[in-house]
Specification:
The chain is mainly α. The chain is built from 6 helices and 3 strands, in the order H-E-E-E-H-H-H-H-H.
C-alpha cells in the first residue's frame, strides 16, 4: 500500500493533475485554443472527439473521503455481525471481509494522502457530514438487526464497485494511478456482494419467517 502513496508523492499535483502526455485507452493529446483546453492550450481528445479533462485533486479527494466515511460505518456493521453470528462459515467470511475492508481503506487513504488539496477544508466538510450522520443515527433508536445490516453492507459494496469504476476512468488520464489494482478491487467487490446477498437471503428466513 505504501508504494501507492509514494507514487502519488513523486507526482504532486498543482490544483489539477497533469493528464497523460501519451496515448492511453484511446486518448491522444493535441494543442488547441478551442473550448476544453487547459491553461496551456492542451486538451485530451478521445477517438470520438469528446474532451477528457484533467483530474481535479480537490474534488477527487472529497469524493474519496466520503467513501472512507461510508467504510467506517461498514466496519462497525461487520463488527456487530461478528459478535452475533454463530455459523462458522458465515463468521469466516465476515472476518475475511473485515480484513479486505481495511486493505481497501489503506488504498483509498494512500491516494488521498498523495493528492494536492486543502486537507483542512476537506476534513471540515467531512466533519459536517459525519455530524449530520450521527444526528440521524440518534434519531433512529436501536441497532440494525442482521437482515438490515447485511442489506446496508450489500448496498455499500455496490457503491464501492462504482467507486473502483470511477477511479479506473480517472486512471486513464492520470499516470499517478499506474499500478493501482483497480480491476482486482472491482472483482473483489463483486465477490463480496455475492456473499453478502447470500447471507441476506438466509437472514430473511430467520428475521421475517415464523
Amino acid at each position: 500500500m505504501d508504494a501507492f502513496a509514494e507514487t502519488f508523492l513523486r507526482h504532486p499535483g498543482r490544483g489539477k493533475a497533469t493528464a497523460r502526455g501519451r496515448q492511453v485507452g484511446g486518448l491522444s493529446e493535441r494543442r488547441s485554443g478551442s473550448d476544453g483546453s487547459d491553461a496551456d492550450g492542451r486538451t485530451m481528445v478521445t477517438d470520438t472527439g469528446a474532451v477528457a479533462r484533467d483530474v481535479d485533486d480537490h474534488a477527487l479527494s472529497t469524493y474519496l473521503e466520503r467513501h472512507l466515511s461510508g467504510s467506517d460505518a461498514a466496519v462497525r456493521l461487520v463488527d456487530g455481525l461478528l459478535g452475533r453470528i454463530s455459523d462458522q462459515e458465515e463468521h469466516d467470511f465476515l472476518e475475511r471481509f473485515s480484513r479486505e475492508l481495511e486493505d481497501e481503506r489503506a488504498v483509498l487513504r494512500s491516494i488521498v494522502d498523495g493528492l494536492d488539496h486543502d486537507r483542512g477544508l476537506v476534513q471540515r466538510g467531512i466533519g459536517i457530514a459525519t455530524g449530520v450522520a450521527a444526528m440521524a443515527k440518534t434519531a433512529l433508536p436501536g441497532s440494525p438487526d442482521d437482515l438490515e445490516a447485511l442489506e446496508a453492507l450489500a448496498v455499500g459494496v455496490w457503491g464501492k464497485r462504482l467507486l473502483w469504476g470511477a477511479l479506473q476512468t480517472v486512471a486513464d488520464v492520470d499516470e499517478r494511478f499506474d499500478g493501482l489494482p483497480l480491476g482486482a478491487l472491482a472483482r473483489q467487490a463483486e465477490d463480496q456482494e455475492r456473499e453478502l446477498v447470500g447471507l441476506r437471503q438466509r437472514a430473511i428466513a430467520t428475521s421475517l419467517l415464523c
